[in-house]
Please model this.
Amino acid sequence: MAAPKRRTSKMKQRSRLAAQAWKAPELGTCRKCGAAVPAHTACPHCGTYTTHRGTEVVVKKVD
Ligand SMILES: [Zn+2]
Model:
């Protein structure tokens, strides 16, 4: 069986695990109502989706 020639250094292991670590999704803000919304997602608060060009699409109606 193949065995590693060298033990993985603490720095190598820690930097690998840091790269794998879960990070909270970066939230943008809805251009219409200002709520925190993940990118490429319709706003759950006002139900609109705004493209990067500023085109506004109503996805669902909120009462
Ligand atoms: Zn909104």
Residues 35 and 45 are 7 Å apart (CA to CA). The longest helix spans residues 10-20.
